[in-house]
């Protein structure tokens, strides 16, 4: 059998992969120096912009979802029948939303990287190559429609980040962070693969659409000639329902590691603080977005028939994640560690609508619950990237980068203080940063309509808790100090451009939230 490949469908990851190879080749043959570092950054930035243009072209072209790497359904599973195809790579609106989010965030991360690398000590070629490899996995993962591609794409997101974290040579904290991240990722991958193997062993297929049919009883699994026989097989005393539950829990646990959800969150603060600031920003937005894309695909595309099992688990994990993240953030004195625990809390808010996806109708990528999670993730990304960009500016003039170092920032760098204050107010959900408020309202509405009143109460309490540390940090920015420390104007223009992009997007979402809410509400419709 020869598979037909639609190169337009895979154009985005293909371009990023080619640019990654080009960067590595240029680094090998061009002389070392500041111009080469800048050139490699511009080449990487150009490749990301081209990939973003292809995402726009795919969105404008329309015509419904497009797929490639397909096989007839009869070959997708021994029990399959009919002429419909099962595909491994699908580009629909869900895919395009996540790809656009990842690539816009990547522009900000590369701009931050250009400043990080200017100090020397970090090889530019390897850095940009690893960043681009991470992006290949991050844009591939939301398009993945079989378990194998999901796992491979997720590992392609994770593996380069280990090296990125450790590229700051002779830095003990970076090495420690890289080792912690490596160990956590290895464990999470092993857990996930075990769960995937159980699901495959029961269903006899790796395709998400076929898994949904098998576990909902509309298609037969191996050992059952008909769907009715399959249902009887599941109901028989073979322990299969328990195995399905174990497999589901293990897969969810694997993704929970990636998004730093409780109780798999303990690595986040140490890794964020030890890694270079651009890597922390990448972990908080790009890696998190990829993890959520995979989790959503597994839950609502592959396992909607098991919603009665996974919905309560997601609800409990969401409540714990937002609570633990906020409580730990209140105790932090380091700016990066505070953003790390804040990122954990935000993961809880993003998870919350998924817990009621089954109650508001059949779980699917087009449901309002999924749209609410995606909308919150998109808005959160803009706010968080802006905060990390300003933190990087301040880190160039302060050794410890603690919250006290931001005291009086408005008097020595007004633009940086205003940008950081606006991003923090957005994260808190207070005016004039209405983007965060709109995101929280959308999530609240979905939770209440789904009948999870207790989860809405937990989220409301946590929103109030979050106000404390966001407002305290914002107040420090405008607190007068007797001795004014050095400003942050020595930073490269690239960082200011990154701050400007994130700030403009966050401001745009605050003024016209329908730009993101309208798109994400139809994130996967044909």
TrEMBL record:
<feature type="transmembrane region" description="Helical">
    <location>
        <begin position="415"/>
        <end position="439"/>
    </location>
</feature>
<comment type="subunit">
    <text>NDH-1 is composed of 14 different subunits. Subunits NuoA, H, J, K, L, M, N constitute the membrane sector of the complex.</text>
</comment>
<feature type="transmembrane region" description="Helical">
    <location>
        <begin position="6"/>
        <end position="26"/>
    </location>
</feature>
<feature type="transmembrane region" description="Helical">
    <location>
        <begin position="179"/>
        <end position="203"/>
    </location>
</feature>
<feature type="domain" description="NADH:quinone oxidoreductase/Mrp antiporter transmembrane">
    <location>
        <begin position="144"/>
        <end position="466"/>
    </location>
</feature>
<keyword id="KW-0874">Quinone</keyword>
<feature type="transmembrane region" description="Helical">
    <location>
        <begin position="309"/>
        <end position="329"/>
    </location>
</feature>
<keyword id="KW-0472">Membrane</keyword>
<feature type="transmembrane region" description="Helical">
    <location>
        <begin position="124"/>
        <end position="141"/>
    </location>
</feature>
<keyword id="KW-0813">Transport</keyword>
<keyword id="KW-1003">Cell membrane</keyword>
<keyword id="KW-0812">Transmembrane</keyword>
<feature type="transmembrane region" description="Helical">
    <location>
        <begin position="491"/>
        <end position="512"/>
    </location>
</feature>
<feature type="transmembrane region" description="Helical">
    <location>
        <begin position="451"/>
        <end position="471"/>
    </location>
</feature>
<feature type="transmembrane region" description="Helical">
    <location>
        <begin position="38"/>
        <end position="60"/>
    </location>
</feature>
<keyword id="KW-0520">NAD</keyword>
<feature type="transmembrane region" description="Helical">
    <location>
        <begin position="147"/>
        <end position="167"/>
    </location>
</feature>
<feature type="transmembrane region" description="Helical">
    <location>
        <begin position="243"/>
        <end position="267"/>
    </location>
</feature>
<comment type="function">
    <text>NDH-1 shuttles electrons from NADH, via FMN and iron-sulfur (Fe-S) centers, to quinones in the respiratory chain. The immediate electron acceptor for the enzyme in this species is believed to be a menaquinone. Couples the redox reaction to proton translocation (for every two electrons transferred, four hydrogen ions are translocated across the cytoplasmic membrane), and thus conserves the redox energy in a proton gradient.</text>
</comment>
<dbReference type="InterPro" id="IPR010096">
    <property type="entry name" value="NADH-Q_OxRdtase_suN/2"/>
</dbReference>
<dbReference type="InterPro" id="IPR001750">
    <property type="entry name" value="ND/Mrp_TM"/>
</dbReference>
<keyword id="KW-1133">Transmembrane helix</keyword>
<keyword id="KW-1278">Translocase</keyword>
<protein>
    <recommendedName>
        <fullName>NADH-quinone oxidoreductase subunit N</fullName>
        <ecNumber>7.1.1.-</ecNumber>
    </recommendedName>
</protein>
<feature type="transmembrane region" description="Helical">
    <location>
        <begin position="370"/>
        <end position="394"/>
    </location>
</feature>
<feature type="transmembrane region" description="Helical">
    <location>
        <begin position="94"/>
        <end position="112"/>
    </location>
</feature>
<comment type="similarity">
    <text>Belongs to the complex I subunit 2 family.</text>
</comment>
<feature type="transmembrane region" description="Helical">
    <location>
        <begin position="338"/>
        <end position="358"/>
    </location>
</feature>
<dbReference type="Pfam" id="PF00361">
    <property type="entry name" value="Proton_antipo_M"/>
</dbReference>
<feature type="transmembrane region" description="Helical">
    <location>
        <begin position="279"/>
        <end position="303"/>
    </location>
</feature>
């Amino acid at each position: 059998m020869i598979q037909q490949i639609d190169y337009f469908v895979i154009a985005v990851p293909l371009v990023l992969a080619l640019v990654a190879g080009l960067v590595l080749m240029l680094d090998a043959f061009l002389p070392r120096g500041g111009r080469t570092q800048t050139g490699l950054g511009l080449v990487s930035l150009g490749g990301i912009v081209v990939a973003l243009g292809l995402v726009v072209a795919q969105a404008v072209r329309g015509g419904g979802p497009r797929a490639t790497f397909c096989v007839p359904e009869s070959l997708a599973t021994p029990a399959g029948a009919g002429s419909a195809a099962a595909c491994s790579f699908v580009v629909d609106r869900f895919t395009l939303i996540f790809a656009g989010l990842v690539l816009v965030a990547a522009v900000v991360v590369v701009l931050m990287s250009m400043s990080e690398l200017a100090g020397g000590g970090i090889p530019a070629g390897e850095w940009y190559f690893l960043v681009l490899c991470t992006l290949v996995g991050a844009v591939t993962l939301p398009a993945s429609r079989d378990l194998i591609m999901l796992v491979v794409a997720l590992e392609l997101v994770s593996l380069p980040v280990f090296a990125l974290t450790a590229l700051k040579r002779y830095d003990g904290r970076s090495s420690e962070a890289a080792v912690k991240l490596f160990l956590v990722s290895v464990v999470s991958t092993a857990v996930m693969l075990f769960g995937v193997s159980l699901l495959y062993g029961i269903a006899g297929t790796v395709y998400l659409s076929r898994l949904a049919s098998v576990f909902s009883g509309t298609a037969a699994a191996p050992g059952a000639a008909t769907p009715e026989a399959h249902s009887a097989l599941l109901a028989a005393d073979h322990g299969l329902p328990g195995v399905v539950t174990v497999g589901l829990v293990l897969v969810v646990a694997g993704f929970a590691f990636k998004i730093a959800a409780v109780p798999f969150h303990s690595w986040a603060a140490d890794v964020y603080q030890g890694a270079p600031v651009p890597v922390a920003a990448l972990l908080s937005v790009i890696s998190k977005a990829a993890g959520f894309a995979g989790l959503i695909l597994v839950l609502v595309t592959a396992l909607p028939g098991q919603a009665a099992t996974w919905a309560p688990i997601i609800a409990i994990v969401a409540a714990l994640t937002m609570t633990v993240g906020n409580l730990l953030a209140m105790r932090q004195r380091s700016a990066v560690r505070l953003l790390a625990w804040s990122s954990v809390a935000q993961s809880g808010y993003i998870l919350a609508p998924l817990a009621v996806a089954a109650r508001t109708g059949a779980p699917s990528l087009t449901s309002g619950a999924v749209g609410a999670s995606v909308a919150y993730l998109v808005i959160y990304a803009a706010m968080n990237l802006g905060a990390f960009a300003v933190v990087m500016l301040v880190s160039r003039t302060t050794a410890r980068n603690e919250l006290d170092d931001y005291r009086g920032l408005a008097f020595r760098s007004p633009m940086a203080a205003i940008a950081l204050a606006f991003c923090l107010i957005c994260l808190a959900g207070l005016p004039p940063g209405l983007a965060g408020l709109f995101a929280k309202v959308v999530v609240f509405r979905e939770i209440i309509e789904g009948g999870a009143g207790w989860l809405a109460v937990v989220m409301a309490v946590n929103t109030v808790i979050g106000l404390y540390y966001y407002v305290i940090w914002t107040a420090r920015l405008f607190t007068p100090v007797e001795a004014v420390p050095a400003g942050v104007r020595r930073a490269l223009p690239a960082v200011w451009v990154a701050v400007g992009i994130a700030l403009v997007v966050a401001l745009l979402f605050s003024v016209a939230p329908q730009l993101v809410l309208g798109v994400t509400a139809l994130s996967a419709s044909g």
